[in-house]
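As promised in the previous annual report, we have extended the structural survey to additional targets. Below is the entry for Bacillithiol system protein YtxJ.
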Amino acid sequence: MRPQVPDILLTPITDEAALETVLAHSFQKPIVLFKHSRRCGISYQAREEVLQLAAARSVPVYEVVVQTARSVSDAITRRLGIRHETPQAFVIYRGQVVFHASHYAITTHALAQTLDRLVTASRTDQ
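The corresponding structure token record, generated without further manual editing, is:
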């Protein structure tokens, strides 16, 4: 059993202006964006995976709760060009989606592997 991870590791996004700020931040370093539904058991399981990543890595992790921030969820779909699902996780770097997954494909391991590849690639770019 995994240890309980505090929710404070996820930064909520509640409006479209905050989303734009977060996406701009991705030009400095990779970010993880997670769309969560409070009505879905699978979403709670995926959220635990994202929380484990947040506890293990120094990567900004942002959360959109679709029930309370529907306009933000819709803006993500428009802005990123990827069909809406919940749960849904994205790794975004330099304004581009470099990884996305939904439902059971959202795992700490898959997210961490993507971040590791980005770190390796950025080292070879220097």
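The beta strands are 11-12, 31-36, 61-65, 88-93, 96-102. Residues 108-125 form the longest helix (18 residues). These points will be discussed at the next consortium meeting with the crystallography subgroup.
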